[in-house]
Amino acid sequence: MTKYAGGALIPVIPIRHDDSATITVQLVAALRRMILSGQLPAGVRLPASRTLARSQGVSRTTAVNTYEQLAAEGLLRSLVGSGTYVSDTILPPVPAHEVPRGEDAVPPRLATLSRDASDRYYTRLAHPDTPRAFVTGMPAFDVFPMALWSRLSARHWRGGRSGVMRYPDPCGLMELRRSVSQHMRANRGVTCAPEEVFIFNGAQDAFNRIASMLVNPGDPVWFENPGTVGARNSFIACGARLVPVPVDAEGLDVAAGLEAAPEFRLAFVTPAHQHPLGNTMSVSRRFELLRAAERTGAWIIEDDYVGEFHYGSHTPPPLKSMDASGRVVYVGTFSKSIFPALRLGFVVAPPRLVEMFERTAAAMLQGAPTGAQAIVADFIDEGHFTTHIRRMREVYAERRDALMRAADRDLEGLLTVRPTETGFHTIGDLEVSGLSETVVAGAAGAAGIATAPLGRFALSPIDRQGLTLGFSAVPAARIGRSVAALGRVMRGLV
Ligand SMILES: Cc1ncc(COP(=O)(O)O)c(C=O)c1O
Q1: Which of 225, 376, 395, 460 is the most buried (most CB within 10 A)?
Q2: Which residue out of 306, 336, 342 has the highest number of ligand 1 atoms within 8 Å of its CB and is therefore the one to mutate?
């Protein structure tokens, strides 16, 4: 119903008395909407506050307060003796027929990509928040040295205020860059200057920067198929032309990559523990990849997310340690080797990209939290990091063994669980014909068991069905019970 009064026509505004917002707030919101939508255009005179009060059934004070609030927002102006007007500075909205409609408009690139990406890319990949079998990529929170960490944290925060409260250097805290370069030299066979190390808010943040720095829209990017989802989406968002390259027991099939896209601009690989299949890239494949990149001037992104965790007799060094020609951008993360809430990762850049990393860091002024960086630097420098890694290798090896033993006992004929010498998870190949990996993962999820179908990681269809089985997050006994439960779920589906 519309009432007429002196000044513009103001429809009766429905007021909710059970609303937590006051009557004034509700009136202000409704009038603001009318002004901004053009229903009350610039220059229009509004009814006197007394008239507004009467027509809306509110007190005069409420009406006055409403006008005052809108005047304070610049939407109304009062002229003494003349009345209250919608401010002249408000531009009318563009008429509906001139606004491109939804699908016809040109949405921003990332929006287009996520719309066109289909469920394959857009599945909600929430990181698991609580440890349970068989989440992947989650370190063992239960054995983390929390008392030590608390001591190091408290010591840091007792430091001088300007040291702990200032903006961080966008390239990373020099103390941490130094600690990482020493750690990489002493323990990973990678020689790099602290200035070649750049700190990021996790590996994912590094992938985003690398993709936008090194890839132009349409550039061919070799990507492991199946492969990790987060990095893949960073390259998609930059408009890369992703080239799915098959992986086998030796890792990325370089010959297949060369056949599909010989002029590749960049290759993304997980040599220590292929994500998600879990194979370690063979030495000959590493050389093939390096030579292919040298020949085409391509970059190689080495995602060494679990490279510290090897349970065999020797730890294969990162691809970066073999990179004589400076084509490899190494990406490390503390999400697995310390804990993911830190949101800290790092890049070891080849010398010819150092300046570009410095310039883009300076231009974006991002930087990771100083406190977290300083505490990690102390954790490394005081030897706790290597002690922790050594201890965790034993813990994860024990959990891996528990998984393999339980799988032999409870999953025979259902899943063949692949032995692995590295990382936080392995793969179970589905052995029951006619049963879909998605159905099994769904039924397992309903029973409280976390596992992902391999297809989730496929860029183009792969002729293999299986499930990811993480073994890092929970103790051996729980892994055993969960394998038995998974066996029951699967037998119920056969
Ligand atoms: C393959 C892979 N790379 C890197 C990471 C680490 O990412 P971030 O350092 O952003 O936690 C993950 C995390 O799960 C991963 O699965």
Answers
A1: 376
A2: 336
Read off the pLDDT of residues 109-142 as tens digits, 9 standing for 90 and up: 666 666 655 555 555 555 667 899 999 999 999 9
Domains of the chain: 2-86 (1.10.10.10), 112-121+144-386 (3.40.640.10), 390-493 (3.90.1150.10)
* Alpha carbon distance 179, 44 (integer Å): 66
Q: Which residues contact 452 (CB under 8 A, 6 or more apart)?
A: 136, 276, 441, 467, 468
Signed CA dihedral, 259, 271, 467, 333: sign only: negative
Between the CA of 106 and the centroid of ligand 1 the distance, in Å, is: 32
- Rounded to two decimals, the pTM is 0.84
